[in-house]
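Below is how a single chain appears once it has passed through the pipeline. First comes the sequence as given, then the structure the pipeline wrote out for it. We keep one example in the README because the format questions we get most often are answered faster by looking than by reading.
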Amino acid sequence: NHLWAKCREAASALLARGVGEGDRIAIWAPNSREWVVAAVAAMTCGAAIVPLNTRLKGREAGDILRRTHARMMFTVRGFLGIDYPELLSAEDLPDLAETVLLDTDFGAFLASGQGADDGGVDAALSRLTADHLSDILFTSGTTGVPKGVMMTYGRVIPQCGVWIGNTGLKAGERYLIVNPFFHSFGFKVGWVACLISGAVIVPAQQPLPAELRPVAARFPVTLYTGTDCAPCDSARQMLRQRGIPFAERSVTTDDDIQALQRMSNGRTLPTLAVGQQILRGWLDSDWAQTLDLAGYPKESRLPRDYSPPPATPLVARAPEADTLPTVQA
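Resulting structure:
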């Protein structure tokens, strides 16, 4: 598929730079498709990724880069008004040989390899085992010097599989990931879980305020709407006024309607899902009470520049299975 082809292109570019087993590749950037491509490419080459919190100061990021001996870093300029490479201008980073900007330089970086058909990518991938280091996630450092937790594929993949089995995430479903990719949740049971299950990654760039993150992770909100639907407009406006981060699924085709029927045991629009709770039909008081009980604030606490992802068509869920499906690349 298209995503895997891009990952292969990026892996080829990394192999051309000599990246391989034992190397560390840092990623200091907000959620994006390019973040995932860079991470998968580095892992494919046998390197371990080092995700960096986008709230770190230059000296904090520099300390982690030095301790992990990161030889490359993928980052951006302008997110949250910050020039991330500039934050490191005063840092001594003897191992950091190259910085690639995901927002401006990534196309040229992809073109610097031999492309998606590079046989070296297959060879590198075939050498990976369960014991290989996949990533190093650092603690926050609030109670001392940040500590790097070293994880292997043999630990990460089974844990993700258990989470997928418990949540029922399936191929074709859209998963709005509001937790940052540098965090274990947004990483392991975020985009990695999507790749394993075949679900669609919908990355939210803007970081949620700290008080919203736990409730959004525990009780994600999805709004199912149709065209020319006045109650749907009212429901959407209510969620936006309260500052509820939500994913919107449009129900327009017969397949969409059948999928909604399977999901909610009804065809009423709008339908709201708050965690496992399903509300069919627009009723302001019931929706407000459910959101209150989930712990969402009554007034918006989202950043002013926050914009929800666009509505996407509802895709029918895959049938239940005792084992996780194999997703072909």
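The chain has two domains: 2-169, 219-313.

See the next section for the split statistics.
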